[in-house]
Amino acid sequence: MDTHTEDGNTFNYFYGAINLIAIFLIVWFLWFVFMNPNTVMKLYTPMYGFSLVVALLAAIVLLKDIAGYYPFPERSSAAFGPVKRGLLLTIAAFLLMLFIVYLFFWGFIGKFGIAYFSPKSIIASGGMGAEIFNARENASTAIVYFLTAFLWIALFWNVGFGKWPWQQTNQGVIAWSRLFAVLFFSSIVYAIMFHPHVCYLFYPAQDKAGVLSWWEGLAGTASAFFGLGLVLCILFWIVASNLLWEGHPWKQYEKNGEGTGAKGFVAFILTFTLGVVILFVLLQIMNYFWYEPFTGGQYTDGADFRYIHAGEICGFFILAAYILKYYFNNFPNVKIFWLRTTLRTLLAIGGGMLFYWFYYSPLATFFLSKVPGIAQPGDTPLVFTILFLSVVMIQVDFFEGWPLRKN
Amino acid sequence: MKRRTFLKSLAATGAATSLSGTGLLTREANARGKVDFGEVKNVRIDVLSETSWFDNDNLKKHIVDYGGAMTNQYDIPWDWDNAGGYMALLTVTTLEGEERKILLDSGWNNDWVDYIYEMNNIPEMLKSGEIELMVLSHWHLDHYWGIESTLKHKPDIKMLAPKTYYPEDMKLLKGAHLTAKNKDGKDVHICKNDVPHTGELVLCDPNGDKGDGIYRLMPGVAVRNFDVPILLRVRGENVLYFNVKDKGIVTVTGCCHPGILSLFSYARRNFKGYKPYGCYGGLHITLFESWDPKFDDIIKGVKAFKIQKLACNHCTGWIWAEKAAAAGIPVVKGTDKYKNYKRQSTVAKASNAFLTNGDHIVF
What we know:
The structure holds 2 protein chains of 2 kinds. By secondary structure, chain A is mostly helical. Chain A has helices spanning 13-35, 47-66, 82-112, 119-125, 132-159, 171-193, 195-199, 216-219, 225-244, 261-290, 303-327, 337-359, 362-368, 381-398. In chain B, the strands form 3 sheets. A 7-stranded mixed beta sheet of chain B has the order 8-5-4-3-2-1-15. A 6-stranded mixed beta sheet of chain B has the order 9-10-11-12-13-14. Chain B has a two-stranded antiparallel sheet with strand order 6-7. In chain B, α1 packs across α10 (293-305). The longest helix of chain B is centred in the last third of the chain and has 13 residues, at 293-305. The radius of gyration of chain B is 19 Å and the shape is globular.
């Protein structure tokens, strides 16, 4: 076993394992307080809690990948240690999460523009079913979709374009420019892939605002779970190439160590293609176990469920990739590039399947108060996965691995 | 068959394939071959009560205030005055012309259930044994917590219930008064049963009584257990299948959590000589008066099966029933009888798209 890190230092796998266990316990505690349906905050309704964890992840990605930590310190220093930096960034991410959900969507866009982003505006518009439960779930659904589009474009931009075309400017310009560019493209992705679904969450349908789901003939469902699943499948390859493949194969399109237009273009096309491929493969595997889905089927028979489930599986893979990279030193670090990247990818997939097994096992009933079984309406492992991922990223990126990372 | 080809053929021919349930072992179950469970001459369904609660917003508020759809139903201090219940009387006419009765579910609020039972002569039918058995569709409060109203007339009634019960469910069946804490920390009465069940309790699972997936109640009548997770921390639902001679298969459900198309598909895949004919029951679609594009999918899917009679109510949601009727699905309309009852649901609609309290249907 090679215990050396990519930068040549020795890696202690024992500390990595302890770190992972500690993170799991923190996630469990957070779930118990905020999400567990039988305890304190009970936010897992599910969409309300879903929107909050996605907003937290989006805030982390915004601070780290879009802003490059601007205006906060990019690295800890003697004067500004990892704990101080971690606390500052964590508080910033938390406040940003609150800002995104409650001020930006509920209080601004939903209040002055698009009603379905705000529960209050939905209720104010009246009509059948316009009360707090439906309204909050529907507004949360729209927020989840928008932030999914945001995460896709943000993570892709970081891996593909990097700082291009603003690499000659200062970090502040880069941060703001990337933010506006990512928001612009996220809005387009949202409008095309998710907005039609949200418009049909109401009765009567808001058919002057949104077209009938254009993907219905292709996907066998009018649900935007089709797009959600596809985006998550694409995200797996974006994360895998960034973390497990050391930035390859897009790295060859870099110029002076910076992203280029060509790099972004190639990365976008190929990750999209690979996303379609893994979605297809996962659907075939599900067809083997559960036969073909059909229009209008529910639970595992539903085409809509199959798409989001493919995304949920990729969510587990993404989480496992982060854990492999940061807690297990991107094992194995053998010299042959294709071998180590292939093995890491397989390990991430294997680790993801372990999470899958956990989530659908009696252990999740114990830890998460989840009803046993697959495809429960109103249950998605993405909430657990994203919460876990957020805590991992906070520890790894904000706290720089403190207190247990030993390089 | 390619996915798109399959979906197109589904729409074009009404053929549908799927498996039932959600377990990974369903392939094995389906490999056992098709089942013949006999035939009945007809089946009549009397809607005793499909009004499980009277004010939808009140029910939803309790769910929201106490943690959402996955909260344990025994932890919510429900508003007793808002509680009703779901019960149906199923009368089977055998091929020999004999009438045999089955009670489906036992409602929620004992006052409401007693009122409904008296209106329909259920106490006498229970005492005399005319009602042979009770099928509990699932352990949800509105189908089960009124169990005392049934047991006080027939404590030893034979019951079929999903095997996937929780300790509180069994505690209530054996006799208990249960409470939940409200936000002030005070205990609120949520359900009670002072008459322990003493009869045979058949706990159903997807294996069935002979390992072929179903429980045979009488010739032409079967119960199938679908082990699916359900909201409010409930799991598993029993569904009744009737094979009506010369007509086809009728599904009868409490809430149909597994999904109506999955029920049809199970029948198509597993029952010999399957012909789709009808369905009755809650279909669990737009119960909270919301919509979702996947509900349009269900309309398209049900249309593809070309069933002759669809009678729905309860958790189906009026919106879905009306949209389904408008889309050409043969939705059997109800009457205004429900207006004569002492209470009505706040979401009841003049379109009568539901077969509601006091109505009946014969398949």
